[in-house]
Structures are given as C-alpha cells and as structure tokens.
Amino acid sequence: MSSDITLVNLNMLFVRHGDGRTDREKHLPLGPLYLTTALENSGFDVDFRDYQTHAAQDPFLPETIAGFLDDSAPILGVSCMANLLPFTLLALEEFKRKNPDKIVVLGGVGSKAVEREILEACPWIDVIARGEGEISGPILMKALGNGKDLSAVPGVSFKSGGRYVETPRAPRLKSLDDIPPPAFAHVAVAAYEGYGMITSRGCPYPCTFCSVAPVWDRETYSRSAAGVVEEMRRLHEAYGIELFLFQDEFFVSGKARVMEFCAKLRKSGMTIKWKAFGRVDLTDEEMMREMAATGCCEIRFGIESGSDTVLARTRKGFVAEQAVDVVSKAVGIFDRTDCFYIWGFPFETPADFHQSVFQMIAFRAMGARILPSLLCFLPQTDIYAEVNKNGGLEFCPYLFPEYMITGHEVLRGLRCDIPAEHGRIFEFIRGHPGIFPGFFHYKLEDNVLPKLAVLQEFGFYGRDRDEVVDTDSCGAHSPRVVHGQHLATTPC
C-alpha cells in the first residue's frame, strides 16, 4: 500500500426486519470526502474506502470488516456516528491486534464528548480527532509522519505517558464557500441513493436534547446561495442527480436567505427536486410556497412536543400554537410534510405526553407524516448531563432509541432481538454506559413502556409485529424521484 492514509467511512444505514427484509440505503459520505480533499491538497495520498458500498450480506461480521481493511496504509482514519461507535471500536480493536504497528485515528461525531472515556477504555485507539478536519487533518498527518509530538496539533485527543491530553480546537471555518468540494472522484456517485449537500455548519439554538449545536460549539456559518446552486448544477450535469437533500439543521436560518436561494435556483433553469429541514418559528407561508415552486418536495419540522411546558423545558424557541399554524399550511403546499417528535423526556408528565399524542393525531389527519423517536441521551447534550448527575439510566436489550439502531438487531416494530453472533456488541455497550449513553433509558417501567403502549394504541408503532408502517420510521430514508414523480422509500 503506497498511500499515506486509509480513510474509512463507517457511517451507514442498515436495518434488519423480523420478516427477513433488510433496508440498506447509501448516502454520500460528505464529511470524509471533504477531509480527503483537504489531505490531498496538502500533498498526501489518500486511500478512501466507504464501507456502505462493501458488497457483503452481513457487514457486521468480524471477518467482513477485517477483509475490508486489508492492505491498508500505515495510518488508518475512521469516521463514525454514535449508533455505530460500539461496532467501530470493537472492529478497530481487532484491526490493531492484527496490525500493531499501524496508527489508528478515530473521527466523526460519535466520539464527541467521550474522548477521554474512549481512550481510557480502548487503548488500541491512538488518536481521536475533534472539530473540522480540513484544518487539523493535514497538520496531524504531518506530525504522525514525522514522529513529532502531537501537542501542537489542534483538535486532537490522545494519551501520552499514561496521561490524557486534549489540545485546543482550531478556530471554526467561517467562509464555507472557500472550502474545496468533496473528493467525488473517490466514489461512484451513481451508487448512492441519497445525495446530501451541506449549506451550513452548526446550529445556534440551545435545544437541550440535541447534539448538533454542542458538536459545533453553538456557532453556525453558511454558504452563499450562489455557491450552493453552483454545486447543485455541477452535480446535476456531471452525475444526473435530480434530488438533493439539505440535511443541515440550519438551512432555514431566515426568510431572506431561503428566498435568495430560491431566486438563484429559479434563475439557474434546473429542473430538480430537493428537500430540507425547517424551523417552525422561521417559516411562513410565502417562503414555503416559493420553496415548493422551485422544487422542494419535502419539508421536515422538528416539532418534538405538543406541550408548551416541554417545549419551554427543552428550549425549542416556539409554542405549540405556532407549530399548528405552520404545519397546517405546509401540508397543502408540499408533496410531503414530516413532523418529528421526541417522547420519553424525564420531565414529560402524562398530561404533557398526551398533548403530544393529540397533536400527532391531528397532524396525521391533515396528511403529515409523523416520525416519533424515543429520547436519545447523547453525551454532548444538556439533558444527558442533567440526568447523569442523578444516575438511573437503564439498559434494555429489546428496546433502543430509533437513532441508535446499529444494524446488528432484528427489528419487530420498535422492539428488537439481538442475534447471538452479535451479542458481544451489546455487552460492550452495557459495560460502558459513560461512552454509549444513547442506548440507555430513563425509568423504563415508569416512563418509557407506558408511553410506548399509548403510541402503539394509536398506530404510531407496530405491536411487536414484522410489518413496518409509515410511522415506524426514524425518517432517515430519502424520498426518490422516479420518472419525474416524487416517491418515498420504505421507511426504516
């Protein structure tokens, strides 16, 4: 292997159902591809590998990942999110056992806020990279290649002489238009079902349950409308992409920005579809109509709760009446309107919860797709810090929050079975609650299961059956465009 680094994307969507079906959808790994460009522009040879595209019936068997990492470069960099962090760490343990002289660098949002815990529990991880890799990645590579002390590298965590070291992060990249585009030449773009685009980085809002804002230090920077439309044009012309996914939470950062984007897109003459997340308090009817007129086929709102008390406790920034007003208009404008809810908050009383359920039923009757998710205690969040002070999180082997599904489980409705061959993953999770709190629950018997029973009664989850209905979805799948029509994939 002549490359300087093997960079691997281990983020993927893989869901097993009890009836034998498997949902597997590949999305362009934008973060690692941006990093690949930065490393190559600094003179490094990058061997990029995307595990999503690896042709394997079961990608989670040890021999499968071992074969995928065979013949890697002297430095292995791996990116993963929180749901696949347990699998990634155990896979890297096996990799390090077979390749003790190679350097293992872990990146991605999965390790955010638990870097010390990982390095103390997993000595086979040499370095954890934090923050935007475009700046720190090339500096880290130079230091590793020259055998230099890593203390001068921004945004890394490591152990030196048994002591945990965490260097300050580099300043945020503010001019996103100046960042070179992802290294699309390293992937077969046509092999992906989801074509995401980054229009902004970060989120300034203080929602207590969400990890996005703290991951980005609650700072946000946006690309220009002209820059976004130009990238869409290049991808449309080069690869025939007809549907773009604006997955960043702050696409709708204000009416003026959205209207400018729509004007630029209209002027481009492209006939494409797109979807985006919106904020209830930043969206009005005029803006939504202009979005739909320029190809927006789906808008997604993080409603989270129908209770003003819960909305205030979670610092969402709007009240339930605003959500009713915006959603009732959106369902008549867009092909699809998604409403995300979170249930299982520690402070969510039965009255609060039932207000959410009633609102969900009303929105469903209007034609919105309802996407409920069990609260996930991610380590970066304020709500986890609050609950963790008092302890009480419980592990349940048959029930995980939707966003923590790893692909090892077999799902029946919301409940799951753990195949024996993957049992080690979940024992690893159970043994390290400080690293993997997202897999744990707050008061399972008194808080989670009674609320689940109510949601099942109203048809928002299946009753431990193999069929999957529309509201069983975590919303991760993408709508597709076939013969010019907007269709939806099977929900996950």
Most strands sheet: 7 strands, mixed
* Spatial separation of the terminal alpha carbons: 38 Å
**How does the helix and strand content classify structurally?**
alpha/beta
Tell me the CATH architecture of the largest domain.
Answer: Alpha-Beta Horseshoe
What percentage of the residues does DSSP assign to strands (E)?
15-25%
- What is the CATH topology assignment of the largest domain? pyruvate-formate lyase- activating enzyme
Number of helices: 15
Mean pLDDT: 91
Strand numbers in spatial order across the main sheet = 4-1-5-6-7-8-9
Uncertain runs are 464-492
> Can you count the beta strands?
23
CATH class category of the largest domain: Alpha Beta
Q: What spatial form do the alpha-carbon principal axes imply? A: globular
Residues in helix, %: 25-40%
Task: Describe this structure in a few short sentences.
With 492 residues, the protein is an alpha/beta fold.
Secondary-structure map:
Layout: E1 5-9, E2 13-17, E3 22-25, H1 30-41, E4 46-50, H2 62-68, E5 75-79, H3 85-98, E6 103-107, H4 115-121, E7 127-129, H5 133-145, E8 156-160, E9 163-166, E10 196-197, E11 200-201, H6 212-215, E12 221-222, H7 225-239, E13 243-246, H8 255-268, E14 273-278, H9 285-293, E15 296-304, H10 308-313, H11 320-330, E16 336-343, H12 350-366, E17 369-374, H13 382-390, E18 393-395, E19 410-412, E20 415-417, H14 423-431, E21 440-442, H15 444-457, E22 479-482, E23 485-488
Parallel strand pairs: 1-4, 1-5, 2-19, 5-6, 6-7, 10-13, 13-14, 14-15, 15-16, 16-17
Antiparallel strand pairs: 2-3, 7-8, 8-9, 11-12, 18-21, 19-20, 22-23
Helix pairs in contact: 1-5, 7-8
